[in-house]
UniProtKB/TrEMBL annotation:
InterPro entries: Acyl/Acetyltrans_Enzymes, Acyl_CoA_acyltransferase, GNAT_dom, YitH/HolE_GNAT. This is Unannotated protein. PANTHER family: BLL4206 PROTEIN, SLL0310 PROTEIN. One of its GO terms (molecular function) is acyltransferase activity, transferring groups other than amino-acyl groups. Residues 16-153 form the N-acetyltransferase domain. Coiled coil: none annotated. SUPFAM superfamilies: Acyl-CoA N-acyltransferases (Nat). Pfam families: Acetyltransf_1, Acetyltransf_18. CDD domains: NAT_SF.
Length: 299
C-alpha cells in the first residue's frame, strides 16, 4: 500500500524529498493526474514507463508520497518536464517551488549545452514556469466530441495501418513535424490496443498520421498530422468512425485555424486550455500541419 499524506501546512524546517518512483507508485501518480483533467490512454502508463523508467520521480513529504515529476531526455539536446504535480490539498505550500530546481538541474545534466526543455501546463501555472525560465511556445485547445460512423467516400490518399509502414519512415515523418525525435514513444503508439493508427499515403510516401487510443472516458486522439487539410479530414473521418458513439478528446493547436475549423466541423467543442512552454531554443514544430497533438509526457 502506498502511503500518502493528509493535508497540512508545510513547516518551515521541513523539506520535501525527491526519489525515483517504483512502477506501482508511477501508476498511482498517473491516476492522481487524471483526477484533475489529464486525459490519458488506458495503456499510457506502460508506454511512458517503458520509454524511461529512470525518469520518474516521487516527491515525499514527512515520509509520504505527495506528488511526482517526470524528467525525460528524448534526445541529447531535448527533454520534457512532466510536472511537478502535487496533491491538491497540499498545493500553495511551496512543495513544487522547492523541488522544481532539482528536477530542472537533473534533466539539464542529461542534455547537451544548448538544450531545450518543454512542458505542458495550465494557464494558472504559466507564471510559475515563467519564473524558472520558460516561455509560451503554443496554446492548445482541448476539444471533445463524439465519434460517429461516417459514410465512406474516396479521399485524397490511401489509408493503411501505421504498424505496416516501415518504422524508420514513421519516425522520420513524426520528427519532421514535431521538431524533435521521440522514437521510444512513437514506437509504442503505432499499434494501440483497442485503438486505431493510420498512415495516409500519397504516391507511396507518408502524407499524414492519425492515432486514437482508448481512455477511461472514450478515446484520446493524437497525433493527428497531415500535409493538407483534406488529408487531415480523411484521417479524422476514419478515427471518428472507429470511435462510433464514444467520447473523443483532441488537443488542437490554437495557431492552426484549419485544425480548429476541422474539429468544429466534426462537432468538437472547446474545453480546457493547454499551455506549451519551452526553456531554451524552441523545437521547429510544424504547427500548421498538426491537427491534433499529444503530450510529450503525462501530468
Amino acid at each position: 500500500m502506498i502511503k500518502t499524506r493528509p493535508a497540512h501546512r508545510r513547516d518551515a524546517d521541513e523539506a520535501p524529498r525527491c526519489r525515483h518512483l517504483t512502477r506501482d507508485e508511477f501508476v498511482t501518480a498517473l491516476n492522481w493526474s487524471t483526477q484533475v483533467g489529464s486525459h490519458l490512454g488506458l495503456d499510457d502508463s506502460a508506454v511512458f514507463w517503458a520509454a524511461d523508467p529512470e525518469g520518474w520521480w516521487g516527491i515525499e513529504f514527512d515520509g509520504a508520497l505527495v506528488g511526482f515529476c517526470g524528467t525525460i531526455a528524448h534526445t541529447s539536446d531535448f527533454g520534457s518536464l512532466a510536472g511537478p504535480y502535487v496533491l491538491p490539498d497540499l498545493r500553495g505550500r511551496g512543495i513544487g517551488s522547492a523541488t522544481t530546481p532539482f528536477f530542472l538541474q537533473h534533466l539539464s545534466s542529461l542534455l547537451g549545452e544548448d538544450h531545450s526543455i518543454t512542458t505542458d501546463t495550465s494557464p494558472g501555472h504559466r507564471r510559475f514556469f515563467e519564473d524558472v525560465g520558460f516561455r509560451v511556445t503554443q496554446v492548445g485547445m482541448r476539444m471533445s466530441g463524439k465519434g460517429e460512423r461516417l459514410p465512406w467516400g474516396p479521399g485524397p490518399c490511401e489509408l493503411r495501418p501505421l504498424a505496416l509502414i516501415p518504422f524508420d519512415e514513421v519516425e522520420a515523418y513524426d520528427t519532421a513535424h514535431a521538431g524533435i525525435s521521440r522514437r521510444d514513444l512513437i514506437r509504442r503508439w503505432i499499434a494501440p490496443a483497442g485503438g486505431l493508427a493510420l498512415a495516409a499515403l500519397v504516391g507511396g510516401r507518408i502524407a499524414g498520421i492519425g492515432v486514437i487510443r482508448p481512455s477511461r472516458e472514450g478515446y484520446c486522439t493524437g497525433p493527428l498530422v497531415a500535409d493538407t487539410p483534406e488529408i487531415a479530414e480523411q484521417l479524422l473521418d476514419s478515427l471518428c468512425s472507429h470511435a462510433d458513439g464514444q467520447v473523443m478528446a483532441l488537443d488542437v493547436p490554437e495557431s492552426n485555424s484549419d485544425a480548429l475549423t476541422l474539429a468544429a466541423s466534426h462537432g468538437f467543442r472547446t474545453g480546457a486550455v493547454i499551455v506549451r512552454m519551452t526553456r531554451g531554443p524552441a523545437p521547429n514544430t510544424q504547427w500548421q500541419q498538426i491537427y491534433g497533438f499529444n503530450a510529450l509526457h503525462p501530468g
